Amino acid sequence: MKIVFSLFSAAVLPSMVSARIGDQLYSDKLKALLRDNMTHHEKMMVIKKLTWPECVSEHLTSFECKELIDYEILNLDRGVDVTLRSVIIPKRSEDQRWYNSVAIPLDDNDHVAGRDGDGMVYYDFVWHSAGSHASEEHDSNIPMVEVDPETLETVHVSGASLEGALAGTDSRPIAGGNYDPYAESTLEGQTKLAKALESEGVVQEGDRTIGPWDCSGMTGVDCCLMIKHEVRDIDNQDNAIQCYLDYKPGTTKYNQLQSASKVRIFETNDGYVSETPAVTQFYSVELVPPKNKGDEYLDLFYD
Questions:
Q1: Rounded to whole angstroms, how far apart are CA atoms 111 and 103?
Q2: Fewer CB within 10 Å, N or C, the chain?
Q3: DSSP states of 26-91 as a string?
């Protein structure tokens, strides 16, 4: 059995854009692009439209780009699945809800690929420790959302305590994201985890850098166990360290898990669009990996 938790994949689906162009819902710039008086021939010409380069060329904000894409999908006779929607994927920042999660990219074998393909895992921010030990309640607040496919409502799932997971007495998941909970680490990975668990966890008040962690050969779950064992204190916002597991862009499993109902809009730090939003001819997402280190985009961090 496989866990497939697509965080916020349905939660961020926009409500249908039904307003006409004359309404004040749209900016003037967007109104110039959104045309509701197209002839039948003009509409047929956009049926094969698979990219929205105007989001970049017209310097649209991510929200304007989203409105443009959703409007064209819903109001033009494109002959496509009307559930196709766009979703904004922002860069990570400390003011996002799941800032306290370590992103752990996986390969097709459910072993840790790491950001650079070497199994190394990084936390993007400074850990602002409150100097208090994480409780079972802190551990259980994992970044996971189950989506009911019929109601599209999201349900938060309580995670396992670190002690229970290590003892094998708590069967709840230890991390959020997309992964196979039955995958096994290599012998090298198992040895790394065993050695890490022999060390005392750190509870140290004040700011400190945590990581990176060498998780090569380890499953995402084992990597997360190692990280949670090491970082045992809560931060100044009363949160424990958490993990989000997902397949690395470009892997077969990552491609398979992408919903055909999304066009991803990759957002810059200042709220504009960094890459041309696109779908393939089969209306699945065309993946655009980040160009620079530290520019990871994950569904998790859209809230």
A1: 13
A2: N
A3: S-HHHHHH--S---HHHHHHTTT--B-THHHHTT-BHHHHHHHHHHHHHHS---S-TT-EEEEEPP
From CA 14, how far away is CA 70, in angstroms rounded? Answer: 8
Contacts of 56 (CB under 8 A, 6+ apart): 273, 274, 275, 276
Nearest to 101 by CA among 175, 161, 158, 155: 175
What is the distance between the terminal CA atoms of the chain, rounded to a whole angstrom? Answer: 28
* Tokens of residue 261, six digits: 């109902």
Report the distance separating Cα 196 and Cα 84, nearest Å. 45
Question: Tokens 């100044």 correspond to what residue?
Answer: 236
- Name residues of the chain where pLDDT drops below 70: 1-49, 76-85, 145-155, 258-261, 280-303
Q: In this structure, what token pair is assigned to residue 258?
A: 């992408």
In the sheet with 3-4, reading across from the earlier edge strand, the strands are 3-4, 176-179, 242-247, 101-106
pTM check: above 0.70: no
Rg (CA), the chain: 21
CA 121, CA 189: separation in Å to the nearest integer? 14
pLDDT for the residue numbered 259: 54
Helix (H) or strand (E) holding 130: strand 127-133
The closest alpha carbon to 11, from 128, 144, 131, 111, belongs to 144
Residue 10 CB burial class (10 angstroms; 0-12, 13-18, ≥19): buried
